[in-house]
Structures are given as C-alpha cells and as structure tokens.
Amino acid sequence: MNDRPVAIITGGGRGIGAACARKLAERGYALVLMSLSDSAPRLAAELGGAGICGSVSKDEDLRALVDLAIGKYGRIDAVISSTGHPSWARTPESSIYQYDDEDHLLDIPDEEWHNMLDVLVLPAVRLARLVTPQMCRQRKGAIVNISGLGAAVPATKYPFGAMMRHALVGFAQIYTAHYARFGIRMNNVLPGFMDNIEWSPELARSIPAGRPGTLAELAGTIAFLLSDEAAYISGRDLLVDGGAARTM
Fold this sequence. Notes:
Blueprint: E1 6-10, H1 15-26, E2 30-35, H2 39-46, E3 50-53, H3 59-73, E4 78-81, H4 110-120, H5 122-138, E5 141-146, H6 159-179, E6 184-191, H7 201-206, H8 215-226, E7 237-240, H9 244-247
Parallel strand pairs: 1-2, 1-4, 2-3, 4-5, 5-6, 6-7
Helix pairs in contact: 1-8, 3-5, 4-6
C-alpha cells in the first residue's frame, strides 16, 4: 500500500505543470502526469512517478489518468488542473489566446468560444467529476485549477481569459459549497507575468515587484494550497502576480 500523498497534474510535462511536479516531488508526493506530448511521461519517469499522453479535452484520456493513479497508488490526494497551451492558438507564446487591436470582440465566431470553453473551463469540471468520488471515500482531497490574471483584470487583448477563466471562480465556489463537508477543497491560482514567457522590459518595470514571477515561486504557492497548512482555504482565487493587478 502506498503511504505517500498522490498528485495528479494535467499539462504536467512543461511550464507551470512541470514546475509543480518538481515541487511536489521534493515534498514527497507520488506523481501521475499527463500532457499532449511525451513530455509528461518522460518527466514522470525522471521523478519516479507515472505518466501518459492525453488531452484534457477528452473524457477517456482523463479517465485513463485517474484510473492509473488509483490503480498504481490506491488514492488521490491532490489535483492540479493545468491546460497548457491549445495547439491551435494563433499565438502559442502567449498564455491566453490573444487578439490584436484590429480584431473585434463581437467578430469572434461561436466555434472559437466553444473551443476555449473546452480548453480553459471544462477540463477542470471533467477532472473534478472523476476524482471527487475517490476523494469522498478518503474524506480528504485538494484541487487547484490554474486560471490566469484575466479572471481578475479583464483585458480587451485577451477576451477569452476574461470570460472563460472567470467561470472557474464560480465553479470553485459552487464545488466548495457541495464538497467541503467531505474534506475536499478547490481553489484557483491566478498567475501574473511569469518567467516562462519573455516579457518586454517596459512591462517588467510596470510590475510593482519589478520583475516577472518565477515558476518555482508559483509552484510553491500551489504546493501550499494543496497542503494541510491550507486546510481551511477553499473556493478562493489567489493572485500570484507581484502586485500587477493593482496597476492594470
């Protein structure tokens, strides 16, 4: 029987997901990772865990991930729902699908709204649907959804961030109302400008902290929210932005 806490991470092969995987491995978690490419299985092998290739947009892939965790370790203590970058986005270097100044909000076709709903909101719902029964049996569990600054500070350049990520706010609150009595918590983390993207010097200087955040700092915050030290925090949105939201 596994006596280590077990964490599932989607988007777990690169960027925020990978940083979280390394941080949780340092803290003794057994890891089960998923990504579209083979980066998650490779990182999982490096960290002594398990990993699969799959899409957060497919129920069967998420079910395989959860089944792997339960089959291998017998429990699920922590979940990080991180979507990574949609493969079809026009600006893959951006953390959110970006629109140029000449684009118009009302010209965005329905198909793109549905695509982003499927990438930014529904993965958190799908994953919660699958892990909650196991967490209820354990009477304990913690989930963190990776949201974004757009949920707190709407920007015309990132309409999907403002609309879709904000939906996670309500979902975490409603989820908490239903499942806190089972000892299960859900929170959203809203990263600001992180060092996995190269930002202009002007933008960096505009951040009150004077610099982008590091993925290690972000991962440390997420690890805290998953830990017993945060046992009385649920249904909340936590900005990790160096104060950027205050100046935007």
